[in-house]
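thread: overnight batch results

M.L. [08:02]
morning all. the overnight job finished for the chain we discussed friday. pasting input first so we're all looking at the same thing
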Amino acid sequence: MSRDYLVRPGTPGQRLRDAAIHLTAPATAAAVVAVPGRQALWLTVLLPLGPLLGGRVLAGRRAVGLEHRVRAVDFNITVALYTLGVYGMLQLGARVEALGVLVAVGVLLLLLLLLNWLLMSAVAANRARYGELFDPPWVLPIHSALAAAARSHRSPKSGATAPELLRSGGRANGYASLAHTGEAVARAARERSEQERERHDCNTTGLHLRARLQRRK
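M.L. [08:03]
and the structure it wrote out:
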């Protein structure tokens, strides 16, 4: 089973908030379009602000909500980058007569991108209502990569941050105590085995002596 189809834990209210995370970007776009004279394509750079800011409030500290937020941010960053690329294609086709065909291609790509954006946002929101995740295959994991790079940041001297040192120190102490406990258990087992062997040897020796005495009688 795909990881996306695994049902995550959560109450109905939490799942509704997870679904709303995926709808914050369309809501942001609707708010931008509603502003008179601001319907420029470059405003698509504001799309990730919906799940980035609103998703933070809706997700809270829940791991499942934060996972939905990360995927929504990645999805809308990808859409914004694609839209800016198509916008550049339209501008190039409009200014260069020899590349006028780019205008038709750009309009077609823009319509397809808009349709996919609305459809994928609706699918992701619907899947979130049932505790599932949704990740389109053409999404660039930009926000995820930046977050991973921030988490893996190392200090120049020790090669690890202070929290990581504390965690690694705790793990080292835990491993040392486990190793000590394991050695103690193994030592006790060896001593018990030696005692049983000595007891068995004593019993065997006693049986032999008794058998010899009986034969002499």
